[in-house]
């Protein structure tokens, strides 16, 4: 049994195989009571990647019968070396669905389909091979979709995270806190990993401790003064590739505006001219002169312009421009088939980079021109598994590195850095997935207090590779887990925001309300994730609009903070549509959850009035709402980084080395 192999004594495994059915193994190990609890539990698994594949297999082998899987991704070729539920024929299919199907293909299936949605199907199908009696529902969807409401989360006994990005982790953390459902968080990077339990009011939550922020690079460093391989790789991937084959005009304009200052205004102006010149050259795509024109522009003309700025090189090594005719006249590079060892780990010579740059430029240009025949707006998007794109980025970044006297990197290294790939090891994923199941057993057995934060490390001061630590208590200043989550049943179609304020938010506790002051701020969603302003004392444009007119539906969360109470973490109101017919005693609303204890009312400061001339502050608040005052979308706001190498939690240092991060699995 994979999850229990290290925890079962010889006596527990000595029963004759001929007398033991699939279920009797689990019963012998767990005992009848816990085995029945496991079999009757409902488990949600979010993520069907490296850890998720191992975890889903463990769950169905460990006696879990009812499992739902949510995953948004499709299967890439690079997944196959460690995500064993997937095979070559599954590439580009839904992870969650394929996993489901693989587990189904044994002849003695006795399960029934609940729902099949697409990517999570692959994981579902694969997992059912191990236990056809399991009842697996797969969802190819974003866990943040409105269908996955707080009420939906409340339907599970356990939630297991096998995610790879910070935003989704925070969302699941918030939803589990609101639903008061135990969450087991996990992650791996290389040989390192961890798993731990999050339970409302018992342990610290995911946001109780700060997380690694994405690495960003100033546009001037990337475009003018690179000093490390990663700078050249980001330039080739995020700037050059997008300029030639994508559509990055808005991103460029935003980056220039963000970084313009008195000190670098001339440099930013020059960079803007370079970008415009490259767009002009792009119009010649497909002609015989196109490749040489691009090369001359970025490796000769742009570098000579930088050299003309003498002050820039007083304390830096000057770059050396390349000249097309000189490189073309050098000795022909050997073909990569003549290279000893793995081709991708061979560092190309300058001539090899030159040849590959020209060849990949032609290949990508041809693809783009053909795509535009079908739709003039078509573009190419960088993908680390696209060989043409990787050839181009590797060649371009290495040529630029040579220009700036920076070490060149192999195609393998460039792919790792450009694709934000953290080394993923199947064994590490398997160990952590096994630990997650062990934690799940303890929770279902009523032993949550006995769970430990478990870390897998390469080197420890004590015997063994697993380090156990006691769970930490919730941080008193955590604005996420210390926020009260209260269910609100109310008529969404007929209740205005002002009515919500008068009858629910500011009404006294004795009268069934929250007892807050008039000085409140209302945001859609958790304020530390979404930050979409709906109301405050200086912005009441939405007051007379109904909740549904503000795109507030079942399961949406309103964060309400009392501005007159110091250090108030606020209240999350979880909306559920109801009418006076369905509410108790014909009431207009119904609250369920921990209200603020009654206390002496503070002296009111009175309702602050808008002042004439304060339009700038008011308009800034309106900007969060898109057109008009209705939220344009309920998706999180993007970080305003200039060039963001990492969309998740990866940190890469100046030399392109991955910095240790505890909470990631690379997919």
TrEMBL record:
Gene3D superfamilies: Ubiquitin activating enzymes (Uba3). Chain: B, domain 2, Ubiquitin-activating enzyme E1, inactive adenylation domain, subdomain 1, Ubiquitin-like 2 activating enzyme e1b. Chain: B, domain 3. Residues 28-105, 120-478 form the THIF-type NAD/FAD binding fold domain. Pathway: Protein modification; protein sumoylation. InterPro entries: ThiF/MoeB/HesA, ThiF_NAD_FAD-bd, UAE_UbL_dom, Ub-E1_IAD_1, Ub_act_enz_dom_a_sf, Uba2, UBA_E1_SCCH, Ubiquitin-activating_enz. GO terms for molecular function: ATP binding; metal ion binding; SUMO activating enzyme activity. Residues 488-579 form the Ubiquitin/SUMO-activating enzyme ubiquitin-like domain. The active site is at 220 (glycyl thioester intermediate). It comes from the Eukaryota. Residues 586-650 are annotated as: Disordered. GO terms for biological process: protein sumoylation. Pfam families: ThiF (PF00899), UAE_UbL (PF14732), UBA_E1_SCCH (PF10585). Coiled coil: none annotated. GO terms for cellular component: cytoplasm; SUMO activating enzyme complex. Zn(2+) binds at residues 205, 208, 478, 481. Residues 360-415 form the Ubiquitin-activating enzyme SCCH domain. Keywords: ATP-binding, Metal-binding, Nucleotide-binding, Ubl conjugation pathway, Zinc. SUPFAM superfamilies: Activating enzymes of the ubiquitin-like proteins (SSF69572). PROSITE patterns: UBIQUITIN_ACTIVAT_2. ATP binds at residues 47-52, 71, 79-82, 95, 164-169. Belongs to the ubiquitin-activating E1 family. This is Ubiquitin-activating enzyme E1-like. It comes from Umbelopsis vinacea.
């Amino acid at each position: 049994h994979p999850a229990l192999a290290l925890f079962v004594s010889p006596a527990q495994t000595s029963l004759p195989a001929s007398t033991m059915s699939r279920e009797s193994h689990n019963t012998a190990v767990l005992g009848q009571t816990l085995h029945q609890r496991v079999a009757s539990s409902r488990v949600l698994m979010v993520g069907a990647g490296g850890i998720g594949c191992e975890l889903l297999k463990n769950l169905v082998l460990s006696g879990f019968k009812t499992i739902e899987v949510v995953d948004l991704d499709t299967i890439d070729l690079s997944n196959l070396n460690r995500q064993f539920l997937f095979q070559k024929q599954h590439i580009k299919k839904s992870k969650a669905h394929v996993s489901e199907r693989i587990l189904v293909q044994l002849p003695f299936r006795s399960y029934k389909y609940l729902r099949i949605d697409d990517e999570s199907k692959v994981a579902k199908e694969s997992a059912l091979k191990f236990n056809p009696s399991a009842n697996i529902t797969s969802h190819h969807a974003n866990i943040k979709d409105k269908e996955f409401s707080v009420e939906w989360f409340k339907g599970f006994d356990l939630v297991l995270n096998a995610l790879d990005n910070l935003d989704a982790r925070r969302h699941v953390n918030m939803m589990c806190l609101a639903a008061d459902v135990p969450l087991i968080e996990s992650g791996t990077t290389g040989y390192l990993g961890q798993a731990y339990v999050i339970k409302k009011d018992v342990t610290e939550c995911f946001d109780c401790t700060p997380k690694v922020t994405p690495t960003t690079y100033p546009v001037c460093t990337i475009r003018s003064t690179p000093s490390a391989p990663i700078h050249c790789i980001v330039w080739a991937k995020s700037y050059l590739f997008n300029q030639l084959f994508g559509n990055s005009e808005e991103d460029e304009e935003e980056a220039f505006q963000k970084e313009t200052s008195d000190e670098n205004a001339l440099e930013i102006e020059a960079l803007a001219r370079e970008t415009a010149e490259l767009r002009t050259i792009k119009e010649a795509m497909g002609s015989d002169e196109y490749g040489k024109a691009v090369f001359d522009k970025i490796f000769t003309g742009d570098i000579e312009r930088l050299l003309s700025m003498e002050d820039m090189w007083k304390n830096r090594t000057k770059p050396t421009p390349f000249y097309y005719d000189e490189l073309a006249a050098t000795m022909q590079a050997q073909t990569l088939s003549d290279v000893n060892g793995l081709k991708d780990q061979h560092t190309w010579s300058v001539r090899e980079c030159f040849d590959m740059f020209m060849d990949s430029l032609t290949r990508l240009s041809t693809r783009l021109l053909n795509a535009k025949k079908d739709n003039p707006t078509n573009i190419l998007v960088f993908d680390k598994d696209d060989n043409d794109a990787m050839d181009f980025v590797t060649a371009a970044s290495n040529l630029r590195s040579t220009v700036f006297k920076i070490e060149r990197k192999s195609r393998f290294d460039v792919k790792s850095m450009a694709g934000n790939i953290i080394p993923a090891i199947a064994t590490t994923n398997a160990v952590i997935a096994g630990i997650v199941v062990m934690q799940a057993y303890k929770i279902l057995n009523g032993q949550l207090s006995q769970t430990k934060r478990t870390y897998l490390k390469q080197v420890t001061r004590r015997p063994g590779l697993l380090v156990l630590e006691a769970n930490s208590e919730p941080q008193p200043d955590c604005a996420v887990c210390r926020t009260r989550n209260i269910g609100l049943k109310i008529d969404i179609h007929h209740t205005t925001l002002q009515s919500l304020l008068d009858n629910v938010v500011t009404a006294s506790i004795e009268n069934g309300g929250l007892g807050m002051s008039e000085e409140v701020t209302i945001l859609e969603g958790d304020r530390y994730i979404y930050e979409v302003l709906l109301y405050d004392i200086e912005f009441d444009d939405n007051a007379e609009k109904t909740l549904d007119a503000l795109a507030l539906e079942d399961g949406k969360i309103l964060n309400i903070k009392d501005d007159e109470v110091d250090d108030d973490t606020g209240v999350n109101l979880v909306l559920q549509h109801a009418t006076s017919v369905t509410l108790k005693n014909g009431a207009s609303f119904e609250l369920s959850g921990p209200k603020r204890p009654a206390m002496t009312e503070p002296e009111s400061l009175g309702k602050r009035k808008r002042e004439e001339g304060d339009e700038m502050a008011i308009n800034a608040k309106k900007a969060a709402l898109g057109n008009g005052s209705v939220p344009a979308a309920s998706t999180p706001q993007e970080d305003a980084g200039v060039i963001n190498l990492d969309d998740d939690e990866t940190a890469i240092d100046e030399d392109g080395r991955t910095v240790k991060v505890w909470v990631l699995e690379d997919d």
